[in-house]
Structure formats: C-alpha cells, structure tokens
Amino acid sequence: MHIDRVAALDIGGTKIAGALVDGNGRILVRAQRPTPAQEDGESVMRAVEEVLAEVAASPLWSGATAIGIGSAGPVDASAGTVSPVNVPGWRGFPLVERVREATGGLPVTLVGDGVAMTAAEHWQGAARGYDNALCMVVSTGVGGGLVLGGKLHPGPTGNSGHIGHISVDLDGDLCPCGGRGCVERIASGPNIARRALEGGWQPGPDGDTSAAAVAAAARAGHPVAIASFERAAQALAAGIAATATLVEIGIAVVGGGVANAGEVLFAPLRRSLRDYATLSFVQRIELAPALTGTDAGLVGAAAAAALGSRDEETATIGG
Amino acid sequence: MHIDRVAALDIGGTKIAGALVDGNGRILVRAQRPTPAQEDGESVMRAVEEVLAEVAASPLWSGATAIGIGSAGPVDASAGTVSPVNVPGWRGFPLVERVREATGGLPVTLVGDGVAMTAAEHWQGAARGYDNALCMVVSTGVGGGLVLGGKLHPGPTGNSGHIGHISVDLDGDLCPCGGRGCVERIASGPNIARRALEGGWQPGPDGDTSAAAVAAAARAGHPVAIASFERAAQALAAGIAATATLVEIGIAVVGGGVANAGEVLFAPLRRSLRDYATLSFVQRIELAPALTGTDAGLVGAAAAAALGSRDEETATIGG
C-alpha cells in the first residue's frame, strides 16, 4: 500500500518506543524510554511525552500526517483509552486525547499490540498478500490480530484477534484473566517453563528457567521439555483452528520469543493443526513464522494509522 | 435494507424448500420436496429442479432478480459446490452452475445454512441493528454465522461462523469431524440426550429420548437432565466467548430446536458466559433467542442473494 509518513508509538510494560515511519515501512527516527510501570499514570504519560518530543525534534516530523499507537491491552479504541495489565497506573487512561494534545492535533489511531503486529506482518511480513490471516505473538503472553477480506480487522475497540484468551480447555486451569484453559495459560513462555519444571526438567548450571532454556533442552532430546512444547503447540493449534473455523483464514503467522524455538514449536504445531483443523475449508491453512522483528509494533502502529486516516472501506494494506 | 424480489433455496438433509421473497422478507410463493438424501446426486438435483419449477410457475417469478441458496455444509462458495454431510450423493456437486442453468441465468449466491440463518436474524430478527453479531443454530448439529462491521461475513467459501466445530476441550471426545471436544460434540441435541441417558436419566412411558424430553425433565427438576443442559451451556458459552474475544461481537443469538428449551438452556448459558467472557471488551456481550423461525433459511438465503447481487463493499443488511 502507499502510506504517507506517519508517527508511531509502541507502548509495552517494559519500554515505550516512538518513531517516524516512511511509506515503505522504514523507520526514519526513533526514540525510547523505559516504562515507569509501577509509577502513577502521569509519570507514565511523561515518558510518552519525552519520547514524542524526541521524535518531533527531527526535521522530518513536519511531514507526519497521523500518529498510530499500538499498546499493551486491554485498549478501548472507541473510548480512546488504555488499561495495560502491567501498567497499573493506567486504568481507562485517555491516551488518545493526551497524545493528540502532545502532537498538536494529529489524527490518532489506537490499536492493541497484537493488532499492530498483525498490521506489520500484513504490510511487510509473512501475511503479505493474504486476504484473511491470523497473526500472533507467543511470548510472555499470547496476543494476536486479524486480517479479514484484505483489511486489518481491529474490531470496534481495537482488540480483535485476542487469541491468547480463548478457552481451548473449558475445564482447565484458571487463567489470570478469570477464564479457564485459555491458550495463553497453556502456551505462553512462562507456562511452557512452569510445565517443564513441574515435570522434572531442571535448568543447567546457569539456572536459566526461561522457555528458551526449555527449547534448548527439547532440542537436545529432553522428553519433558519436548512434551511441554508439544502441549503448548496443541493449545496453539486448537486456537488457530478455532479462528480458521470461525473466520476462514488462509494463513497463521506466529512470532514472539517462543516462536524463536523454531522447529521445537513449529513441528508439533503443524502436527496438531492437522488434528484440529479438520473441516474442508480449513484444512489448507498455512503456517509461517513472523518476519517482522522487534520493530513490528512501531511499523504496525504506523500501518494502522495510515489505514485509520483514510476511508476504512477503501483502505487496504499488503498491496 | 431495501432488497428486490429474490428467489431462495433452503437445502437440508430432510427437505428442499424454495420461495420467492419480497423486499420486506415476506414469502410470496413457496414449494417443498423431501430430500432424496440416500439417492444419487442427479436424483437430488431433480428434486431441486422440481422445487424451482413450482416456484417459477408463479406469475411473480418474472420480477426475481437473483437467487440465494442456503445449504447444509460444507459448502464452497468460491467453487460453487456443496458437499452436505447428510447427502452423500453430493460431493463437490456444482450446485451454483446447475441452479443458474435451471433459472435461465439468474445470479446465484451460495452460503452455508448457518450463514443464511444469520442473514435472516440480522435482517429481521434479534441481531437487527447490531454491527457485530454471532447467530447460531443449536439442533441436531451446531451451526452459525457472523455479522462483522455491519455486514454479513460469509468468508471466502461461505462457511464463516462455523462455531459447532471449534474445540473447547482439546483433550475431549473425538468428534465425527475428526477434531476433539468440538462445541457440537458437547452441546448438540443428540449429545445432550446421550449424556443424560449415560448419567442415568430414563425417558417417560412414551420412550422419547430427544433433547426436548431431557429439557422437560430438567424443568421438572431432574438433576441429571439439568446437569446435561448445564454442560451444553458451558460449551456454548466457551464458544461464544471465544468468538467475542476473536472478533468483538455485541450479541450472540441462539436458535434451533435446543434453544426451544428456553431458560433450561439460557439460564446456565448466561452464568457460564460470565465465566468465559472475561476481558473488558467482551463482558457486555448480549445473549438473545433467535426470532426468525422455520423460514429463517429461506429468508436468509434471500438476504444473502440481495447482498451478493450488489457491490459487496456498500451492501449492508439490517438497516
């Protein structure tokens, strides 16, 4: 697609990043601050303003036509507010209004971070050219977003594609969200590590109990580590198949730290997908690792802003 | 919406119905044949042609601008073919082409029966006025369809919203579709009855072991009958919550024979929905019984045809 130069914010529990992004998805200017996640809401906003001020100091800023925000969720795009789980000082925080004020009235588009990553993958990554796609991030949590009918589908509040919190195990373990057997409760990095430890896997001399360490053990043939990834893959497959059965996606793109495990995750994921994606219209679903990296949040927020600033009915990305 | 007069076909495993439907969703002419489900494909098509000939014999036929087909699935709208599970003589049967030939070249729109029911509920029923809705039929099977962004969302092959075959119990019982723990495997009428019988419920002197008989027993306070409906409601709630979490629906409309159980189903369904629809953007989802009755398939096929015969980007129903 053709997009103008736009500004972007990527807001997470660890860092707040800002950028100017050009029409080819290249980052022209960037700035970053740690998120003062345990401080009050105004302190967090001050960090956002510092990032924006640093980006706006660039001579290129004057060409920016809009600003996109991808934020840790939940977000409420219809109200313009965010309530990131890991930023307790922000509950119903009017981020859209505050960013509009801080940028001299630029049009602001807010989406969840999973939707932003999806916009990036559809524009620049593995979902490019697909009219119907699920893109997901498997990391500390499990998030995602949807492309439907050739267009990003943020939904009314900007949260669509929230695959981490659909239940695939209705009698399963309680999830911090209040549900049971959510995909995230089974497939996130911390849950992969927890299950391996509970099964008797022990970390090496460095004491690393991350999912990456479990992946290394699985690669070396440790059966408990392999089983923990297989269980995660089963939950992801059930969630991907559910999404395909509900909205007919052609591809599922999987990114995030846990996806870096490579075939340790993707091999059982492909197998399990055959078990759950059974109906004729979902059997041909493709599976691919994400191509956009750590900048996906910024690039995707820019793409969402470019879409949000024009007629939704005619905007398409990926072309 | 304003629609022209259109023809409609509703094709199921038991009967084939045809109609002329006016712009207000009224049925002007109708015809029906039993489905010769166990005969060869050409015999089934002959029944379709007889239904069409009877409808076309009406003097009103000359005003018909399009024909919509709602068919038992799976369907493939992109190929124009149907393969209804209960009509073994039709496997990849080119129904769209054959109906076009039989109607002198009218534009034909094919959707799955769950999508057709959804079109009817959005046009005339409980989903009217909602931009984002899931409509479902809980009966011998469990089907459904989606309205997204104010428009029917059939998906590329006409099967979107197929909620009966998403897994909500990834280690659960095998489903005839090949998956495990599908919503239909837990919540369909036959499965409600099976579970009640397995739990020790016994039918009355009339020997009726239908889900309706289990509902009557539940209404009379039989704990096993109540528990079987509660389990069905739990699976439906997990499926509805998953749909809301994935695509942000404002209402879930539940129809079909099992929904006739009324509060025996809806009371535990409302309770279970609170357990699974936990994220802020799905907590306010509404739940309503379907309003369109046995003609939903015909009315919905007509609505789908009216949408299919105009620019997809501008067509809306429900307004």
> CATH-wise, what's the superfamily of the largest domain in chain A?
ATPase, nucleotide binding domain
Question: How many structural domains are formed by the residues of chain A?
Answer: 2
Average pLDDT taken over every residue of chain A: 93
CATH class of the largest domain in chain A, named Alpha Beta
Low-confidence stretches of chain A: 310-319
- Based on helices, strands and strand pairing, what is the structural class of chain A? alpha/beta
Largest sheet of chain A: 5 strands, mixed
Radius of gyration of chain A: 19 Å
The ordered string of helix (H) and strand (E) elements of chain A is EEEHEEEHEHEEEHHHHEHEH
Report how far apart the termini of chain A are. Answer: 5 Å
State the shape of chain A. Answer: globular
Oligomer: homodimer
Q: Which strands sit side by side, in order, in the main sheet of chain A? A: 3-2-1-4-7
What's the total helix number of chain A? 9
Q: What's the number of extended β-strand segments of chain A?
A: 12
Q: Approximately how much beta-strand content do the residues of chain A carry? A: 15-25%
Protein name (chains A, B): ROK family protein
Family (chains A, B): Belongs to the ROK (NagC/XylR) family.
Organism (chains A, B): Streptomyces liangshanensis
InterPro entries (chains A, B): ATPase_NBD (IPR043129), ROK (IPR000600), ROK_cs (IPR049874)
